[in-house]
Structure formats: C-alpha cells, structure tokens
Design brief:
mainly alpha
Length: 450
C-alpha cells in the first residue's frame, strides 16, 4: 500500500490537478470534453493500481461526497452567471420547457426500453435507472459551450441547469414512491417545492445582509459552508435542496432585481460586488477541483469488460437513439430549423453517475449492467465533441468566406477609386490644355462671367 501513503497521495493529487488543467486547455482547442480525458486517466490509474496494489480500495463513498459537493458548486457557478432581465424571460421559460419535456420524454422511453429488455426489472425500478440517463450534464455542457454564440450559449446554460434541478427532484420523487409509508403525492410535492423556494429566498436575503457586515477577510469559505449546511439540512427534511443553491446564486448575481427601489439602502454595494466576484472565483476553482477528482475516481470504478457485452451495446444504442429523436422533435418545435449543434449537445455525466449510486437497495436490479451507464456517457460526449468540432469548422469557413468577400469588395472599391482618380486627372489635364489654348490664341476666358 506504499502507493497510497500520505506523501504519495499528495504527489498523485497534485499531478492529477495539473493534468486536468492541461486537459482543459486541450478541450478548448479540440472541443473534446475534458471529462472524457479525466475518465480515461482514471481507467489508466486503475490498471496501475491493479498492478501495484494488492488490496481493493472502495471509492464509492468518496465518489458520492465529491459528486454532491461538485453538483452544488456547478449549480452555484451557473446561477452566478445568469442575468435575470425582462428581455430574458422568454428565453428562460423556453429553456425550462425544453429541459422539462426532454427530461420526461427521454426518461419515459428509456424506462420502457429497460423494462422490456432487462429481466426482473419492475417499472418503478426502470424509472429510477432511466431518470439519471435522461439528465443533461451541466458539468460537461457549461465549460464546453463557451465558444458558441451568446444566445446559444445562454440557452445551453439555462437548459442544462434546469435539467439538473428538475431531474434530481424527479428522481427523489420516484424514490419516495418506493416506500408506501413515505410516498409523496403530486400536491404534497408541489407544496414542498413552494416551501423550498420560500425558505431559499428568506435564507438568501439573510445571508447577504449578514455577510456584508462581516469584516473578516476569510469569510467566503464560511459562506460556502453555510450553503452546504442548508443543502444537507434540506435533504434531511426531503426538500428540493438544489433550489436553495440556485436561488441564492440568482439573488446575489441580480441584487438590483431582488432589492428594488428603497430596499437598496440595506445594501453596501461595494461589499456585495466584492463578495460576488470573490465567490464566483472560488466557485469556479472549487468546481474545477471537485469535478476533476470525481471523474478520475469514476474512471477508477469502471469495469471495462461490461462494454463488450452485446446486450449492453444494444440497450445503450436504443436509449441513445431515443434521446436524439426526442431532442430533435422538441428543438424543431421550440427553436425551428437552426438546431445545430444544439441537437447533439446533450451529454450525460456527473448527475447521471451521482444518482446511479444513490438508487436505494429496494430499487436496485442485479441484472442491470453498469456498462450501459458508461456507454451512454461516452457516446453522448463523443457526439457532442463531433458536433462542436463541425460547428467550429463551419464557423471558420464562414469567417473565411466573409474575409474573402470583404477582400474582394475592398479590391473592387480600390479599382473604382483608381479609375475615378484617373478620370479626374484626365479631366484636369484636358481642362488645363483647353485654357492654355484660349490664352495662346489671344482670347479671354469669359466662362465664369454672368
């Protein structure tokens, strides 16, 4: 176990973070998701551990903790970047509708596929396995769409964030249905959601008003600790805790909207801006580190042998095809013809893995192959990579065509200007010769006389 000694762990963790930073740079240039590279790094490390380490290490507890913290940081990071303005109400509502319809339709079809292809799979369990496979991964999407146009980028940030939140709420709603004693009905679920929103708003106002009064410089991790505490307590009371994180991020990112008119006197604008900017940086950094270790550890837990199973490949392909057919129909209705590369920006990732490991014992099915999960994650990420690369080339071609058109137009204008200059010079020469002729013959020039 020397490889897992304290100093070796520090060295290994440092190298992983450095490699992750390098992968992010490669991802920006090639559009290959850094997540795939991190998973492959985990797979390579697994082979190394199997060779050097005798005892097996159980990474699942750390995977669950990292996934939860990563989820909170990713949603907070997304919320801090969302500006709520009157002109953005329609894009937000449209993104929410697309995310909800895509989630429900994809989960329903995936549940039918799992129910009819896996032995001993009940419909309730099929939904529990299908929901994680139907949630978009904001952990992959948000860092990957930075090169898109502003409207498309904004759409993907809204859509993936709503997909995460609604998917998690839907998943835990289904878990409640497994236990008749604690089952939650539709009305109770709606009331719980409204209660969560009210608690989130009250907590957000209280946090902002209190933290702007704290003079200590080391208060941002205290703020993050408070958010983690609220999230965990909310989970204990079966609330939709992710809404608390989302609303807090929206409130601090849009203080003018949430503190209108005379209520703005309660704010110290300078301190609020400072807290916002520093929190944004820490959230980005924390999300990066947590995401890095989460996907590397996930790679360490993968059983590659499950990928070569014909049943795994067949079931996975059916689910993947259904995902894109449903997505195509929804995007055509809500957006129109301009749906590339949005159609293929539908990767599964962190939330899918996290919820998969949170399926309760009474909902688990022994015959379910975890390779289905891995196959869908890799395939959807690769399809997104292909679409982003193609879109980048298309944009490059369009820019080249625009540059060529501008160059041709400039050349034509230059030729036209040269021609005009020559004609003007010719006219001047002819005019001067005419005037000299008059002077030589002794005539006076009366052209300017009335």
């Amino acid at each position: 176990m020397e490889i897992l000694s304290s100093y070796n762990l520090i060295i290994e963790a440092s190298i992983i973070i450095i490699l992750s930073f390098w992968f992010t740079g490669i991802s920006k240039k090639t559009n290959i998701p850094a997540v795939l590279m991190l998973i492959m790094l985990g797979v390579i490390l697994k082979f190394a551990m199997d060779y050097f380490v005798i005892d097996q290490v159980d990474f699942k507890p750390s995977l669950e903790i990292l996934g939860t913290v990563g989820l909170i940081m990713i949603v907070l990071e997304a919320a801090l970047e969302l500006e709520l303005k009157r002109e953005k109400i329609i894009p937000i509502l449209k993104s929410m509708a697309i995310a909800l319809l895509g989630l429900v339709a994809s989960a329903w079809v995936a549940a039918l596929i799992l129910y009819n292809t896996i032995d001993n799979m009940s419909m309730a369990s099929a939904w529990l396995y299908a929901i994680p496979l139907s949630i978009l991964s904001s952990a992959i999407i948000i860092p990957s769409v930075s090169g898109l146009g502003e409207k498309k980028k904004e759409f993907h940030i809204y859509e993936s964030t709503f997909s995460d939140i609604m998917g998690i709420m839907m998943f835990y709603f289904m878990i409640g249905g497994l236990d008749p004693e604690h089952a939650v009905g539709g009305t109770e679920f709606a009331l719980t959601t409204v209660l969560t929103i009210i608690i989130a708003l009250v907590a957000s106002y209280a946090i902002i008003l209190i933290f702007q009064k704290i003079k200590s410089q080391a208060k941002l991790f205290l703020l993050i600790a408070v958010l983690l505490l609220l999230y965990a307590i909310g989970k204990k009371f079966h609330l939709s805790s992710l809404i608390i994180i989302l609303i807090f991020g929206l409130v601090i990112a849009n203080v003018k909207l949430f503190f209108p008119g005379k209520t703005a006197i309660f704010l110290d604008k300078g301190k609020i801006d400072q807290i916002y900017h520093e929190l944004h940086i820490i959230t980005l950094e924390t999300a990066f580190v947590v995401r890095t270790f989460f996907f590397v550890i996930f790679g360490l837990t993968i059983v590659l042998a499950s990928l070569v199973s014909l049943s795994v490949v067949g079931i996975s392909l059916l689910i993947i095809v259904s995902i894109y057919i449903i997505r195509f129909l929804i995007l055509r209705v809500f957006i129109g013809k301009d749906i590339f590369p949005q159609l293929f920006i539908a990767p599964r990732g962190l939330i899918t893995i996290l919820l998969f490991y949170n399926i309760p014992v009474e909902g688990q099915v022994e015959n379910f192959e975890s390779g289905i999960l891995l196959f869908v994650i890799i395939a959807t990420s690769l399809l997104m990579t292909w679409a982003m690369i193609k879109d980048k080339k298309k944009m490059g071609t369009m820019l080249d065509e625009i540059d060529e058109e501008v160059l041709q137009r400039n050349e034509a204008e230059d030729k036209l200007n040269e021609q005009k200059i020559l004609e003007e010079a010719k006219d001047n020469i002819e005019t001067n010769d005419f005037e000299k002729g008059f002077e030589n013959e002794g005539y006076e020039d009366h052209r300017n006389e009335p």
